[in-house]
Design a protein that fits this description.
InterPro entries: CHCH (IPR010625), Cys_alpha_HP_mot_SF (IPR009069). By secondary structure, this protein is mainly α. The protein has one domain. The protein has helices at 2-14, 23-35.
Length: 58
C-alpha cells in the first residue's frame, strides 16, 4: 500500500494537485485500501470510477 500511496501523492504534486490527472493512481490506492480492510468494501463506481479506469489506467 505504501507504493500506491506514494505514487498517488507524487502524481498530485507533479500535476499541481489537479486530481483528475491522477484518477488511475487514486483508483489503485482505493482498491489497495479496500483489499487490506482499511476501508469498507464498496463499488468504486460510487467514487466515480467507471470501466475506463481499469487496472492499466495508471
Amino acid at each position: 500500500m505504501v507504493q500506491e500511496k506514494k505514487e498517488y501523492i507524487n502524481c498530485l504534486k507533479s500535476s499541481g494537485y489537479q486530481s483528475e490527472r491522477c484518477r488511475g493512481f487514486s483508483k489503485l490506492y482505493l482498491e489497495c485500501r479496500i483489499q487490506r480492510n482499511l476501508m469498507a468494501k464498496q463499488d468504486l463506481s460510487e467514487f466515480g470510477f467507471g470501466k475506463e479506469y481499469g487496472m492499466g489506467a495508471s
